[in-house]
Amino acid sequence: MDPGSDEFLPPPECPVFEPTWAEFRDPLGYIAKIRPIAEKSGICKIRPPTDWQPPFAVEVDNFRFTPRIQRLNELEAQTRVKLNYLDQIAKFWEIQGSSLKIPNVERRILDLYSLSKIVMEEGGYEAICKDRRWARVAQRLNYPPGKNIGSLLRSHYERIIYPYEMFQSGANLVVFSCSQQCNTHPFDNEEKDKEYKPHSIPFRQSVQPSKFSSYSRRAKRLQPDPEPTEEDIEKNPELKKLQIYGAGPKMMGLGLMARDKTLRKKDKEGVICPRTVLMKEERREDGKRMSPLPREDLNHSGEPCTKMTMQLRRNHSSAQFMDSYLCRICSRGDEDDKLLLCEGCDDSYHIFCLMPPLPEIPRGVWRCPKCIMAECKRPPEAFGFEQATQEYTLQSFGEMADSFKADYFSMPVHMVPTELVEKEFWRLVSSIEEDVTVEYGADIHSKEFGSGFPVSSSKGSLSPEEEEYATSGWNLNVMPVLDQSVLCHINADISGMKVPWLYVGMVFSAFCWHIEDHWSYSINYLHWGEPKTWYGVPSLAAEQLEEVMKKLTPELFDSQPDLLHQLVTLMNPNTLMSHGVPVVRTNQCAGEFVITFPRAYHSGFNQGYNFAEAVNFCTADWLPAGRQCIEHYRRLRRYCVFSHEELICKMAAFPEKLDLNLAVAVHKEMFIMVQEERRLRKALLEKGVTEAEREAFELLPDDERQCMKCKTTCFLSALACYDCPDGLVCLSHINDLCKCSSSRQYLRYRYTLDELPAMLHKLKIRAESFDTWANKVRVALEVEDGRKRSFEELRALESEARERRFPNSDLLQRLRNCLNEAEACASQVLGLVSGQEARIETPQLTLPELRVLLEQMGNLPCAMHQIGDVKDVLEQVEAYQIEAREALASLPLSVALLRSLLEKGQQLGVEVPEAHQLQQQVEQARWLDEVKQALAPSAQRGSLIIMQGLLVTGAKIASSPSVDKARAELQELLTIAERWEEKAHFCLEARQKHPPATLEAIIREAENIPVYLPNIQALKDALAKAHAWIADVDEIQNGDHYPCLDDLEGLVAVGRDLPVGLEELRQLELQVLTAHSWREKASKTFLKKNSCYTLLEIVAFKEGEQKEKEGILQLRRMNSTKPSPLASSTTTASAASICVCGQVPAGVGALQCDLCQDWFHGQCVSVPRLLSSLRPTSTSSPLLAWWEWDTKFLCPLCMRSRRPRLETILALLVALQRLPVRLPEGEALQCLTERAIVWQGRARQVLASEDVTALLGQLADLRHQLQDKPRLEKSPTYPSAPACEPHKEGCGKDMPKQVPGLLLNVGSITNHEKVASVQGSDLEVLSSLLPQLTGPVLNLPEATRAPLEELMLEGDLLEVTLDENHSIWQLLQAAQPPDIERIRTLLELEKPERKGNRTRGRDLEKRKRRRQLKIDLSRKSKDLVQEELQSKKTRNSEIKPQGGQEEQFEEETDSENIFLTSIEQSPILKGNKNSFQHNGSGSAASLSSLTPLLHHPYPQ
Description:
Layout: E1 16-17, H1 21-24, H2 27-38, E2 43-46, E3 64-65, E4 68-71, H3 72-75, H4 77-95, H5 112-121, H6 125-131, H7 134-140, H8 149-169, H9 219-222, H10 230-235, H11 237-245, E5 282-283, E6 289-290, H12 307-311, H13 319-323, E7 339-341, E8 348-350, H14 369-377, E9 386-387, E10 392-393, H15 394-409, H16 418-429, E11 437-445, H17 446-449, H18 464-470, E12 501-505, E13 510-514, E14 521-529, E15 532-537, H19 542-552, H20 554-559, H21 573-578, E16 584-588, E17 593-596, E18 601-606, E19 610-617, H22 623-636, H23 644-653, H24 660-687, E20 691-694, E21 717-721, E22 728-729, E23 745-749, H25 755-782, E24 789-790, H26 791-803, H27 810-838, E25 845-846, H28 847-859, E26 862-863, H29 867-889, H30 895-906, E27 910-911, H31 913-935, E28 942-943, H32 944-956, H33 961-989, H34 996-1006, E29 1011-1012, H35 1014-1037, H36 1045-1057, H37 1063-1086, H38 1095-1099, H39 1105-1120, E30 1150-1152, E31 1159-1161, H40 1170-1173, H41 1206-1217, H42 1224-1247, H43 1250-1268, H44 1312-1329, H45 1342-1357, H46 1363-1374, H47 1380-1394, H48 1397-1420, H49 1427-1459
Parallel strand pairs: 1-2, 20-23, 24-26, 25-27, 28-29
Antiparallel strand pairs: 2-17, 3-10, 4-9, 4-11, 5-6, 7-8, 11-12, 12-19, 13-18, 14-17, 14-19, 15-16, 15-18, 21-22, 21-23, 30-31
Helix pairs in contact: 4-14, 7-8, 23-24, 24-25, 25-26, 25-27, 26-27, 28-29, 29-30, 29-31, 30-31, 31-32, 31-33, 32-33, 33-35, 34-35, 36-37, 37-41, 41-42, 42-45, 44-47, 44-48, 45-46, 48-49
């Protein structure tokens, strides 16, 4: 099968093994176990247990290596043969100044090697031409028939291969003697010359590889060049001479002559010879040019290349030297201008004597046919891998490898299928035209760079996990030196065999067909990365593989007989399989082992970037294969890695240290080796060599003890010569040492023939020691001599097996089982006896087990002295059985007697059946006593849990008539009790509560049950609480006074929690609900919004009335001493007033409370509004009546409530009288009302006195005088917003809720914006009138003022609004100068509020317009179908404008309310000035003056 001709077919898979943890703990033992199966395939794969994952121990940052370069198509043997052939034929043409270009046939590169080989197989060139069999040649090259390809192949063969084949056969060296007979040339078609393509190719392995981007080392050879034109031929002498002489061979010895005789004429013109040879040069990657010929061949002078320059370069002045140049063909020296001097051998030739003759002296270097033949016949250099020039780290190599694979396959590396990589690999290695180069970090020494496995060393400590893997037998640093391994007896650290090698691979990097050194085992572990693909051949087919490779590629093995030991050659597995070689394959993934067996050929390649580690190991079964390998190496004359004889003797020197299986194997090998040594020394003696001397070969370096003939490393003996001290031979090649006499030769030996048998005997003792031991054990276990051995004797035999490291065997296992059984029996007897003596509870034996123990001890092959104790115990048990049976037969017995018998049986340490029956009787009696005590009338009632426990215990004891009866009675009682418990639970948890009578009936029924019932008891307690609750309710309801609300709420809460239906509870809940409703109504009447006070705090006295009065007077005195914020200078902050905001009031905007005399910010508290106090009456009051302005200010601490009118409070008291409940708020409210009525009576009495009546009359007269004054022209009128509601702070206390505005013509006001503008002008007018205010207007005597001020103080302390309070305040105001500063402050505070009127008015107007627009649209959208509907809609349209006017009026009124809200609620409003004109007259009417406010009582 030709590799690459068909698609690659993967070989079958090799065996895969998955050991258990128990198997995995013994590596070499497991490998020996699977060897019979695995060695049939040559290789196998082992998957460790899943949780065996050794850490990667390489120091990644410090790991640096230089990889090898691998050109894939040079690895495959058959492909390399073709490439070698192409190199040779290319060299042949390059020496003659031409470059080889391989032609394409049928769009395929012509395989010149296959063409040459098939021509030779078909009988040669002449035979094929004679029989016209070129079509058959084309068919064998797999070209399609019918396209005249045979002629084309013949043409290419004639031009390229045939001249080279003639040189190879030596025909060109024949003396030209038959030129006339062979004058006819069979190939003289000059047109065919145009198809020749010159070649240019460097030698392989002499050019640095390219960096993966282009693989064109031979690309130039494979690319067609353009055909040379006639002009090119004329200009180029080389092409010209090729064209002139036509196709076919142009060298001497072919019987060809030039057709043109004129070409023999002498050249008279000298040709200038260039300094370099006229041949193409290859540029290396490093920029240097290199030539296929040595540099000394290129050193030429620049003088004309005449006969003198060609012949006499070495000595130009010697005439004698000139005469010595004769033509080597015609032996004449004439026509010296036609003589050519060869640069290789200095021979001379006439240009017309050459075959073919040359038309002129050639340019540059010329070589004769003999030198060309020598150059082409030179053997090729041994093939090997080059080292790359770049050093890599793991990271840089991985980046390069992944990038190369991703670019090559045009997909991510992890997505490339392994099957695709495998087919592509074998296609590339078989391809001549594709030159792919990869790099492989192979054979990296782990001692230098560090192993991938953790290794125990003194440098650093390992973690427990790393320590576990560092000592594991599967660690490749540990496996070669295990006790069962042969290599542990070699002291030297053999790199690759005892010390692991590391491998860093990339895609396509390969390891070629090979077997391990000394045919040892090998194991490979893939630490991480992409898989590694393996191919393996079993050892039985190793020679067959070698024969197939030699047969298919004999050229390679002729030059390198040990080629397969160089690890540089692949061959397609399909090719091997087609020749009968069995091949298997596998993909080794990360974390898996691959094992190769002795002499099993294996190869493979990497699927991608990965890291592997490998090492060799040898077991006892390898020793015969190792000996055969040494013989094989001897035939190949290959150097050994170590001496096999030395290894065997070293193990034989210390047989006690050997594993038993290894000792047996070493004994066999040692026996064969001693026999062979005897034979060889006998032959040496027969030759006549009698001298001998001892030599410690192990102390000599290997190169000083190697056989000169076969390169074997000698150890047991060697032959040397006194006269030739530089060499020695093994005893197998005693005739190849030297020609000296045998008497001068002498034997160098390590051991005498007497010492060797002694070593063999020690090995035999070690090997046979197991048999001796086994006989002893067999006699002891089978008691063949009738004497039972003691336990100590058997233990000594087991210790001997352990010390001598005997292998596990059935006999050893039987011995261990016997010892374990004896130990178990002794332990049981010891426990039995010690338990009896110490009276402690131990695990008891049954009576049958005791008898089995006695029988087992009697059957043991060792003597047990404890057997007497067991017999004593058995006798005691039998006596106890008789006593217990008699007691059971005479039932009933007392419980005490039964218990004494039971305790006696427990002390025996053995379970007796009769003791079990006694135990049952005791348990039954004890349970019946417990039941009787629980159900006795005089006993305390037991709970349900106790009864249930008794029932459960009764179910476990053995059955008897009395037990069954008690169990049935107990079950019936428990069922009844549970039923009543369910009833009680239902009554306690039911939503619908039952009346007390029902519950009493349930409790009476449950009293008859002799069991404590928790739910019944809970129901009884609840009923008792219900009776107590009803008694409490009756006591409260029937008392002399109404109950307090808190008492009623407590009773309601208790009654709701009781699981009893109570009729009185509903009445109490209704009373509580009514009381809460009254309290809520009273709270709304008194409390401000978000007030921090409770109702009781407002209406109750802080202290006694007199104490409260004294307290406010003291507070006024204290506050009066504080500095006024309006003054220019202030005192320290500690003596100043503090506002509710926490700051000290200062400057304009501060107000003083009329009651407590403390100062506050006007913006932080509710203040009176002047415009709200100005309202129109039937008789308008003058604007200058300032004493009627509302300037009275009470701070939030003095005015804590809404201060409702007395009439409202009386209504609350009437409602309170109807409540059957006492409330603390109600009692406090009654006291407040009584206090207010008393104060009102005193106030009216004072106001009705003559002095006060006269003063009131003076105020009335003054008002009339101001009213009768002429009015100012165009003085503006002042609208007024409705007065504040009574609960608004800062408003007059006697103001009505709403009054009409002060404007004369209210109906004319239709726009809110106008109203806002007028209101804005009110503040300006009032501000302008402040300088005109004068006072006091009344002269109030001190006798009259003092009672009025005292009344005023007491009235302000009341949380009630009274008209008399306002009247007294006006009198006191009129009797003192107007407080201009307070009025100005109030006006300043009212300005920001009035500024928002205009914006608010605009928003209201816009809403009104949108509402009107919606009405109009809905009106238009109605369908006027019927007349009645039309008339109704018409009427509706007439009514709606009125409604709109009402809405407008209401909106105006609402807007006024909004404009005049208290400061704490009003936004900053914008005012607008405007003037109002009356519609009645054409001129502007004068504005009416404002009248003082009248006192109106609050509506009821």
